[in-house]
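Bug report (template v2)

What were you trying to do?
Predict the complex of my protein with beta-D-fructofuranose.

What happened?
Run completed; filing so the output is reviewed.

Input:
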Amino acid sequence: MAELNNPNLSFTDHEQALAQAEKSIRDLAYKRNNRWYPLFHIASKGGWINDPNGLCQYNGTWHVFYQLHPYSVQWGPMHWGHVSSKDLIHWNREAVALAPSLEGERNGVFSGSAVVGDDKQLYFYYTGHVMINNLNGDDGIREVQMLAQAGDSNVHHLEKLGMILDSPDDLISNDIRDPKVWKHDNTWLMIIGAQSAQHRGQILLFSSQNMREWKFEYVLFEHPDPNVFMLECPDFFPLKDSQGEEHWVICFSAMGSKPQGFMNRNVNNAGYMIGSWEYGQRFEPHTEFRLLDCGHNYYAPQTFLSEDNRRMMYGWMSPFIQPIPSDQDGWSGCLTLPREVYIGEDADIHTVPARELVNLRSSTQELGTVALPINSSQELFEDAVAAELHVRFNIAQSTAERIGLKLQLSDDGSYTYVAYDAQMQRIVIDKRDAVQGDKGYRSAPLSDDEIKSGFIDLQIFIDRGSIEVYVNNGRQVLSSFTYPGEGKRHIVAVAESGTAVLENITLHTLNSIGLA
Ligand code: FRU
């Protein structure tokens, strides 16, 4: 690797850089327009955010950090933003946690994860990003792995401990980032996403006895698709199935995969494979690559274990397509809701909203059953700004080609359509009639068993600018920005080319998580 300055030297004062970042966020937030600003999703007060980072529950408190650009509504030199919560429902804004201040992270403190050491201290592994000659490209960057430590038990500030892993250029190209660390028996293990010298997406395994000195072990996984040149945000964990048998799940955000039918429709796509693994061997996938979320806006998920041992996950709701409507409003990007990850009886991954989220509900309206005649529609609710909608489509008793819900239907005719498409046998989010943002649809598959059951259960979280659709208890999820029009946000049920029966229709109004 070309000799750069010592990565541990500081080029600016960290505290001062953090204070400047805070000021810029305040300035952006001052001008913020709230029409789409989330009431119950985590976002920055102002500026751009991407990946969730450093997720943990430590001394009883939940901590969520995220990639943050405090100086504009577009991606730029990365910082870490920080929010915390005692109950996963009410959140507090904490001070910006990390800003670039060392030579090895001159152009960004990139993504990383949190882990509790044997000394019970909380450590953060992250990537330092440097642009060589001001270039961001294959030969223009250097990425090294850095360590930081929580400065107190309440995690109010992080202390930087410097570089722990230089860029090992004999193994790979310069893309090597997003470390995730865990303890395996008596050894600390770290996976990092990388691009190989042959431009293949890989996940590399490193080991350490003391959390500071790391040694390269081997390539844990190489993506079988030669188009995939980089695997970002790798994650790797054991998960028991409904019979109690343990499997290993590998998650990553793949760059370079090409759209194929319904698959990989987004610019980059995040998903998982289930398989087996023993330390010393490569991960052996037993499934193909599957998406963790089939919506328009999902990337860079990270999981962690709660103190009661649930596998929790946050993802980034990624505004991939420019121009991004919320840019006009002074903010860009938010995280998904926290999800619990488990293997269902179908032997596949399910992700459901964290159980704590029922505590967000305030009032509840129940409509029971609505039966729609051929080619008809009916308003279900007059206005839903921040809400959780439950609906069961009785597909056995419906003849419609599509049973749909117009969500956030506004007076200018703009809406986002969530539907069961009987021809495709898929759940669809169609944004064709949304006035703002990109158009197009995304869809999630249903299995033959789900179709045969005769019912499809939807749980839909409607926030001011986005929706998350959970299908059949998290069997599939779709997350999309929607950017509704002005005025009331109606919910209307639709039967296209046939009849439709909708049951158990319930709307919970949701409270704010306190970050707005
Ligand atoms: C994924 C990613 C990571 C990187 C971070 C930079 O969205 O590109 O690989 O660490 O974002 O913001």
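What did the reviewer find?
The radius of gyration is 23 Å. The longest strand covers residues 172-184.
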